[in-house]
Amino acid sequence: xxxxxxxxxxxxxxxxxALFQTFSGLADNRVVPSPGRVLIARDGVLVGSVGVSxxxxxxxxxxxxxxxEASGLVAQL
Length: 77
Prior knowledge:
alpha+beta, elongated
């Protein structure tokens, strides 16, 4: 399990493309480093995450943050 927003994951992939290509291959190409997932916190405690897909990565992330904040929780980027 990766406990970081996908924006962080994407930044890591930019610097280690061969490693992330290997991860993707091992996972039958189901690992795609793209923004869209954010962590959810309540009172400073990680309680979950939410992911959005369907537009560009940055727009997916904006939508995920908006949904978390609309619920009264805190989106961690």
